[in-house]
């Protein structure tokens, strides 16, 4: 389990390196300075979209912030070493990082665990700067994308622009596992 203290320390480190104030980052991300302070101090977890916006503002990948492993040219991560999940299930998801090759990598593979329908409270779609590729590993979801709903089952894939509002909506109480690859848009 990655602790939120570690996430907060990474954000603070990157913010200070960029010589930005909490207010500057909060304004760029459309969040309150109070929320950013709580995140930096490890007092709260936050939605992946919020974490992604902070990362974008600080010019660091989400995987660098979330993963405590040292950076190397080769990243081998055994399944048993990947048992951590990040996120608040009441927000509708939790996720696990599959690799952290480098903070300069433009690809971030994760597994998103979509919370079962009865416990999922997330209704507002997310946006972020990266393109997103998804592959349904287990279960099924409805992909709400730019106002349209598409049913997706195990084995289905999608590729889309993260800047458009989107949300993984659970369709049953089994939840779902979704391989998600965030790809930095370079054009």
TrEMBL record:
Pfam families: Cupin_2, HTH_3. The keyword Zinc does not apply. InterPro entries: Cro/C1-type_HTH, Cupin_2, Lambda_DNA-bd_dom_sf, RmlC-like_jellyroll, RmlC_Cupin_sf, TransReg_Diox_bact_type. Keywords: DNA-binding. Residues 11-65 form the HTH cro/C1-type domain. PANTHER family: HTH-TYPE TRANSCRIPTIONAL REGULATOR, METHYLPHOSPHONATE SYNTHASE. This is Helix-turn-helix domain-containing protein. It comes from Virgibacillus byunsanensis.
């Amino acid at each position: 389990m990655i602790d939120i203290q570690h996430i907060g320390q990474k954000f603070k480190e990157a913010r200070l390196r960029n010589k930005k104030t909490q207010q500057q980052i909060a304004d760029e991300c459309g969040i309150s300075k109070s929320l950013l302070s709580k995140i930096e101090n490890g007092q709260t977890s936050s939605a992946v979209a919020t974490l992604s916006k902070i990362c974008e503002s600080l010019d660091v990948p989400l995987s660098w912030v979330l993963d405590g492993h040292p950076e190397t040219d080769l990243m081998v991560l055994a399944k048993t070493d990947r048992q951590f999940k990040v996120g608040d299930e009441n927000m509708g998801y939790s996720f696990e990082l599959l690799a952290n090759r480098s903070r300069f990598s433009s690809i971030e593979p994760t597994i998103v665990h979509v919370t079962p329908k009865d416990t999922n409270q997330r209704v507002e779609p997310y946006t972020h700067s990266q393109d997103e590729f998804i592959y349904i590993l287990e279960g099924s979801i409805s992909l709400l994308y730019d106002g349209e709903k598409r049913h997706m089952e195990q084995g289905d894939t999608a590729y889309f622009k993260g800047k458009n509002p989107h949300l993984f909506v659970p369709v049953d109480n089994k939840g779902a596992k979704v391989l998600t690859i965030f790809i930095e848009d370079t054009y």
